[in-house]
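Fig. S4 source data, part A: sequence.
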Amino acid sequence: MTFLRKSLVAFLILAGFALGGCNVARAEKMRFTFGSDTPRCNDAACATWINARGVITNETPADFIAFIDRNALRAKTVRFDSPGGDLVAGMRLGEVIRVKKFDTEAITCASACAYAFLGGVQRRFTSKQTRFGVHRFYRSKPRNPTLRHYSGEDLDTPQRLMAGLMLYAMKMGVDLRLLAMATEAGPGEMRWIDAEEARTLNVTYTPYTWDRWEIKPLGKGIIAISQNQDKNASMQIACTKSEGAYFLIRDERENAGWFRQCQATRGNGHPILGALVGDQDVVTRTSQDKATIAFFIDPRKVTFSNATVFADPNTYGPSCIAPFDKYVGATAGLKEAAQLALRNCVE
């Protein structure tokens, strides 16, 4: 059992803290069912996600473990639709989800559900209509709020609770500013987190999602650059007076040998920025412990329609299709940043 589970979770149970949205009292306890885009799916064989609907209670983590133990699941995503519930149970459920290596998705996920959601290895909102909210924690059985004097325990308890939430958020890889946002709303209110805030705070986390293209100065010139959410890989567009224009991928987690083996296509060339780049115009190398592959482009031919590579089965063999669509780059800001970079070559 982790330090968090031993010291903070046990303490919180005794302290009687809960989190819940406005509809918690009226909602049923959380149930887990099979989810799928296939109509009338009601077994593990066809399920592509696990529905988690209802209020999180003290029994919810054990219910989840029982559900996955008795079903031979291929699905590795938990999709939440919950107004909240028990804070400690939400954290325990999140820990189980992380240990079992499940991803999470949110339709509506508020209060205690938000902390369970953070347990996902990868975390997504299902749509632009997703509602994700946090607020201040409170005692499920509050003491008399009109008393003028507070005991040492009254003052100590919230500090220890906040320390527990901070440790949990750090363990899940989430920006601690989320907890500051939670303090903006009382128990009867909600601080709703929008999609941009969620991405900035790592509430939503898909490491192979690429940031909007931007420009950065380099030497006496400019490069266009986009990074993945993990910040361990980048796509760059630039030009030098000696080598010309290029599109480059630098990935510190990739093996340069994989780039080299995928340097040759099935004969048509690499589709780069809307144009084809011949195999002979591709260079791979390792630079500063980061595997790098550069595609030399003709600025007159590229259309900047996309920034995707190693994804087309008509171009690459199965071993050269990148997993998880990891090199399906962003299009936001692509054309503007690239054109500016190619007009200001690096010397």
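Fig. S4 source data, part B ends here. The chain is about 25% helix and 25% strand.
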